[in-house]
């Protein structure tokens, strides 16, 4: 049985930006982005590092955008 705290934590899934967006930014295929993010490709290559960086930056920016939209809508 999950406690209230566990339910809160388990309901907060990390939102990922889509593979197509990361692929477009980096300039590679969606399939390759998926494989890198799943750890099926080496992450020490330049393109893999760019994929990880783009995913992280896009995710951070998207979260900030969502929070700002929530703030504006609540006004």
Largest beta-sheet characterization: none
What would the principal axes of the Cα set say about the shape?
elongated
Instruction: Give, in order, the helices and strands.
Output: HHHH
What's the end-to-end separation, in Å? 38 Å
- The oligomeric status of these chains comes to single chain
Structural class: mainly alpha
- Computed CA radius of gyration, to the nearest angstrom: 16 Å
Count the strands?
0
Number of domains: 1
**Total helical segments:** 4
Strand content: under 5%
Helix content: over 70%
- Overall residue-averaged pLDDT value: 85
Low-confidence stretches: none
Short description:
This protein has helices spanning 4-11, 19-26, 30-37, 46-74. With 75 residues, it is an all-alpha fold.
Question: Any overview of this molecule?
Answer:
The protein is mainly α and 75 residues long. It has one domain (16-74). It has helices spanning 4-11, 19-26, 30-37, 46-74. Helix 2 (19-26) crosses helix 4 (46-74). 9% of the residues are buried.
Topology:
Blueprint: H1 4-11, H2 19-26, H3 30-37, H4 46-74
Keywords:
elongated; 75 residues; single chain; mainly alpha
């Amino acid at each position: 049985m999950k406690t209230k705290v566990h339910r809160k934590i388990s309901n907060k899934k990390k939102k990922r930006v889509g593979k197509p967006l990361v692929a477009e930014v980096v300039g590679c295929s969606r399939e390759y982005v998926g494989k890198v993010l799943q750890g099926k490709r080496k992450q020490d290559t330049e393109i893999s590092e760019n994929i990880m960086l783009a995913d992280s930056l896009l995710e951070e920016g998207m979260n900030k955008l969502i929070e700002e939209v929530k703030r504006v809508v609540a006004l």
